[in-house]
Amino acid sequence: MATAIPRAAPQAWLVDNLLCAALTATVFSQFVALGATTPLLAASAATVELTLALIVLAASLGRVSPGYWSRLYPVGLVLLAALAWQAWPLWRGAIPGLQRLPGWRAPLNPDAAGLEALKLAGAIACALSAAILARSRARAIRLTSWLVVGGGAYVILSLWLWRWDPLYVWGIAKGDRTWSFTGSLLSANAAGAAFGMISVLALGLTQSMSRTLDLHAPRLRELLLFGAACFGVVAALAAAALTGSRTSLILTAFMTAALAIVDLTRIQDGTRLPRLIGAAVLGVILLAVALGVGLAPIAAKAGVIEEFGTRAAAYQDYLKAAWAAPWSGYGAGSFAMVNEAILPGARMDERWSFTAAHCAPLQAALESGLPFLALMAGAMLAGLAQVARAWIAHSAASAVGLAALAAGLLAIGCSMVDVALNVPAIAAFCALALGLAWGSAAGIDLPPRQRSAVSGWNPSGVADPAI
């Protein structure tokens, strides 16, 4: 007899669904609003994210075991330290003579420091909210379900916007790549990262539901959700291909193949080997197609090679500037001023329109110093180590948890050569995905008694539905 997954009380189930819906709406409303790239939209979105995090915390008091909180403290404290370091232009006056120390520079744009700190605080709030809402297997599936449904709706809206007016987004010109498919964003590369994340998350939900869906006596809600997940995989992958973003397409294909292979390794019957071979062949085909699409322009026109040369030269200049102020950087939000300052020594016609360094770690060091970069990297590595330890120790890596981790890493990978994480909506989505993986692993890594408390289980023995 199969053991059912117990569930929480009806009121808790309703509250969790409302909070998941609110978090999903908060993220995808930013995508609809041009990615929340203007100061007003970014500040408004971050304020909503912080408010929602406080509501999630308040709703979780008394329902989450102390052991679960202890799993979140280490990474959370490092993230708060990184936030405090990034905001140093706001508190620099509290330490006289600080800016006269070697490696410290006065912020070039102190007025932007507050907004950048607010945006980072909002992203941290998204990660924390997702971690709390995904603290059990059923809750992780529920949050992923909301994200996949919201992502599918966003893909449909994006295609409609392109059909309605391919040259503009909400009446705003797209810039250099006018004919590119960008969804509701102004950057095709950023849009490709967003669609790739949606596709990967939808694949994880499809894999999870394929193990539990009873096709002999299906429930209508489960069938609709499974159909939405399958649609999300295909539609979002197609949308990512339409953007023409080489990096996002290659990473999406790689993550898709990796998730398929990992999922098939769990099959214990006699069909395991043939399925693994089939998954490997599918992965090779996906990667070949992605690499073909991504590398074909390089062979077709020299402009792509020149673009890489421009980026490499820019990275060298930005790295030299970062080493000139290793402790403080030049202040959060100061990239435009730094770029203008070093333009006389470079080709102005190549970089005058750069709004970001096209490399997230390099821009983080340039603006906020090497300690900030080290703290953010430390928080990321600590979280990944916690996730890996929990999944390996308990052999309980969930499909949605793996997919969320893959989606977050996809966004980070895109930001290594482009502007993905410079778009507040993608930064929030990435933080949410990583928080989902982090929270689900932290729940697994608890002793049985505390795991029961963290999940809010009751003796009813009724399986907790996905939504």
UniProtKB/TrEMBL annotation:
Coiled-coil segments on the chain, per record: none
Location of the O-antigen ligase-related domain: 232-375
Primary location group: membrane
Lineage, broadest ranks: Bacteria, Pseudomonadati, Pseudomonadota, Alphaproteobacteria, Caulobacterales
Stated name of the protein: O-antigen ligase family protein
Gene source species: Phenylobacterium montanum
Pfam families given in the database record: Wzy_C
Membrane-spanning ranges: 12-34, 40-60, 72-91, 117-134, 146-164, 184-203, 223-242, 248-264, 276-300, 372-392, 399-419, 425-444
GO molecular function, one term: ligase activity
Assigned keywords, A-Z: Ligase, Membrane, Transmembrane, Transmembrane helix
Subcellular location: Membrane
GO cellular component, one term: membrane
Keyword Transmembrane included in the entry's annotation: yes
